[in-house]
Automatic annotation (TrEMBL):
Species name: Shewanella electrica
Domain OmcA-like N-terminal stretches: 57-218
InterPro entries cross-referenced by the UniProt entry: Decahaem_cyt-c_OmcA/MtrC, Mtrc-MtrF-like_dom_II/IV, Multihaem_cyt_sf, OmcA-like_N
Protein name (record): OmcA/MtrC family decaheme c-type cytochrome
Record carries keyword Signal: yes
Signal peptide: 1-28
Swiss-Prot/TrEMBL keywords: Signal
């Protein structure tokens, strides 16, 4: 029986092509190859938004026609793959604002104060207070306007998915003639800004686009780019500044809503971005004066989501003096385009935000710039730039000064002696009348380890005031003798330092003061500023420093530049660098604190730094989380949390029940400097099982019993991972 084969169309075509090729070969032809065909269209690589693990947004264009705004944007992942499938069911919102030149109108109808260019949102609502709290002081609930953004979910046809990762959105808000509740007159010559805020699958992306409708230009147009969010990250961690539930991350988007007409109805306070940021960071230092002329606190407060109170009076701004605007307003290379705008003297807003409307008993005004400007300042005063400069100039001069230590030796009684000179910026010794005689130098040894044992020589014994020495007026030199402590019996070969906390005196700035200069400390209206000088370090020989020996540096723990990046030169007290450990040793005595379990807290540098309110906002202060304490790299060096490097270190803690002294082994103490209040039985058992001691009766007992093996498992990478880095 003959088999029958059935061929489909594809096989027939293939068979035909094969026969044809054989026929051509059989002919022995050597004809030229035919021309290559044109390339086909490349396949489009896309990913659905439901499957995306990263999310980026970019606005490519925007336009206005008869008040109708359309915007074209693109969604991609981190690898540039187009993301499709966005619908108005996703949480996506759009903002629209105009950068308008604001000039007040004077009482006579003429042009008044020029405020420069300010953002005005086209989308505003009028809001009455919603059940404001009755037990919160310093608030004045009232009906206010709030700028906002529109949700794509409010329109079924406004969002169009082009299928290739690009989208088009048509705004619901027509901007041609906005009259209520806040009038905004559209001007095609003014810069317009559109913004996107998108949240999907736990991912967030923000984008903005500025353009001039009359020309379509995006470059060379009016701008207001004053501060970079990268500057904020000097003190804040990036994830901690995702506001409003985490969906808002870009400053350029923030200013579209936080406009000069926006307020918080429950508190009655402005939420203008300039005002809000300055008032928040003024924190616990913000004050005013009451009708009796008494200075009273004036903390900035907001009643937020679900009636939660945000009392920014608990904020401790880390930079001192606070007049140092350069903390946020960074100028120079790579600075924002309009970085210098803060010196333009065109806004009263920042002044009032920091200083309140009544910054002194005899001074009350909301029109600060009428007096504090360079062109025609009020008699006896000066521009805002000068007044802030007056505060900073003393610090600038003090940083250029220095302290010279020489002739270190011992006297016949075996006491340490040395000479000290305070030098001006030109290296000339200054007279004692411009140096605070109560300011001190601090002596320490074992600086390569953990500084002197507290019981052998406490920091209060090792600090020596200038007034305790003698002064030679001809050479302007102090001779200091250490009479309050003894050199260690095994001093030879130890690493020593003499650390200056000396302070120079300056006249205060203010009304009628032309310039800031070194001033006799006995004069009225002076202030003391610490001179910046690295410690004088040496290795002790038989009777004096061994000038042939090299000082051994202490192991890396923190990076002082990170600390000073946020704090500046002044951190708390004795503000000459970050040398806190020379006084706040691991075994320093406890401090009474009724709010802490057991009533006693350690005073070691590690404990104080880890538990300082500004470093621990997840547990203290405002509980805002804007500084994430668990980010070790905020302060530490890359190798600063290596365990097992100082096995002889012993920490003093207070027992959590009654506060009596307990002694803790080296690595365990480092952990407890953060975690002691949250210590569980399981963690306690884990520490003790692995050779740690957390309730020793004495330093010697801990040294005898401790056999820590923490570093075996707890590597740097593991520690960083468990702390969320």
């Amino acid at each position: 029986m003959m088999k029958r084969f059935r061929f489909n169309t594809a096989y027939k075509a293939l068979l035909g092509a094969g026969i044809l090729s054989l026929a051509l070969v059989g002919c022995g032809g050597s004809g030229e190859d035919g021309q290559d065909g044109t390339d086909g269209e490349p396949g489009l690589a896309t990913i659905s938004i439901t499957n995306a693990t990263t999310l980026n947004s970019t606005i490519s264009s925007a336009s206005v026609t008869d008040g109708t705004v359309t915007v074209d944007f693109m969604l991609t992942n981190a690898n540039g793959v187009a993301i499709t499938g966005l619908t108005n069911a996703n949480t996506i919102r759009f903002g629209i604002a105009q950068l308008t030149h604001i000039v007040d109108t004077a009482a006579d109808g003429s042009a008044g104060f020029d405020h420069g260019y300010q953002w005005q949102s086209y989308i505003n609502t009028e809001k009455a207070p919603d059940n404001p709290p009755t037990d919160v002081s310093g608030i004045t609930p009232q009906t206010l306007y709030q700028a906002g953004i529109e949700a794509a979910s409010g329109c079924d046809t406004c969002l169009v998915d082009n299928g290739d990762g690009s989208y088009k959105y048509t705004y619901q808000q027509n901007i041609a003639n906005v009259t209520t509740p806040v009038a905004v007159a559209f001007d095609a010559n003014d810069t317009q800004r559109v913004t996107i805020e998108l949240s999907a699958n736990g991912l967030v992306t923000n984008a903005h686009y500025d353009w001039q409708p009359s020309s379509g230009a995006t470059d060379g147009i009016q701008s207001r780019d004053v501060v970079s969010i990268e500057t904020c990250y000097t003190c804040h961690q990036p994830d901690s500044l995702k506001m409003h539930g985490g969906s808002r991350t870009d400053i350029q988007n923030c200013v579209v809503c936080h406009t000069s007409t926006s307020g918080d109805p429950e508190s009655g306070n402005s939420i203008d971005f300039t005002y809000m940021i300055h008032a928040i960071h003024r924190g616990e230092e913000r004050h005013t004066f009451n009708a009796d002329g008494e200075q009273v606190a004036a903390p900035y407060k907001i009643i937020g989501y679900r009636g939660n109170l945000y009392d920014f009076g608990k904020v401790a701004f880390p930079r001192s003096p606070a007049a140092d605007c350069s903390v946020c307003h960074v100028e120079g290379a790579n600075a924002p385009k309009d970085a210098a705008l803060f010196t333009a003297e065109q806004s009263n807003t920042a002044c009032i935000a920091c200083h309140s409307e009544k910054p002194s008993n005899n001074h009350s005004s909301t029109d600060c710039m009428s007096c504090h400007q360079a062109e025609s300042p009020y008699h006896g005063t000066g521009s805002a730039v000068k007044r802030h400069g007056d505060v900073l100039k003393a610090n600038t001069i003090a940083q250029a000064m220095s302290v010279a230590v020489s002739n270190v030796a011992t006297n016949d009684n075996g006491q340490l002696t040395f000479n000290v000179q305070v030098l001006d910026q030109d290296g000339n010794a200054v007279d004692q009348d411009v140096v605070s005689q109560s300011s001190r130098v601090v002596v320490a040894w074992d600086i390569d380890k953990d500084f002197p044992a507290y019981d052998a020589a406490s920091y209060s014994q090792r600090r020596i005031s200038l007034s305790a020495g003698t002064f030679d007026s001809s050479s302007r030199t102090y001779t200091i003798t250490a009479t309050t402590f003894n050199l260690p019996a095994d001093a030879q070969g130890k690493n020593f330092e003499i650390w200056s906390t000396l302070q120079a005196c300056f006249n205060n700035g203010g009304y009628g003061v032309a310039d800031i200069a070194l001033t006799p400390c006995a004069n009225e209206g002076t202030r003391q500023v610490t001179i910046q000088q690295t410690p004088y370090r040496f290795v002790w020989g038989a009777q004096a420093p061994d000038t042939t020996a090299s000082v051994t540096a202490r192991r890396n723990i923190i990076d002082p530049t990170k600390c000073q990046g946020c704090h500046g030169a002044e951190i708390h007290h004795y503000t000459n660098g970050v040398n806190c450990g020379t006084c706040h040793t691991p075994d320093k005595t406890l401090r009474t604190d009724a709010s802490y379990p057991g009533g006693k807290t350690p005073t070691s540098f590690a404990f104080k730094a880890h538990h300082r309110e500004g470093h621990e906002l997840n547990h203290n202060g405002m509980n805002s989380g804007t500084v994430i304490k668990s980010d070790c790299m905020t302060c530490h060096t890359n190798d600063g949390i290596v365990l097992g490097r100082s096995p002889d270190r012993v920490w003093r803690f207070g027992d959590l029940t009654d506060g009596h002294d307990i002694w803790v082994s080296s690595d365990a103490g480092a952990c407890l400097s953060c975690h002691q209040p949250y210590l569980t039985d399981a963690v306690r058992s884990h520490i003790e099982t692995n050779g740690g001691v957390i309730d020793g009766a004495s330093i010697d007992e801990v040294k005898q019993q401790a056999a820590e093996t923490c570093k075996t498992c707890h590597t740097v990478d593991q520690l960083l991972n468990v702390h969320g880095n």
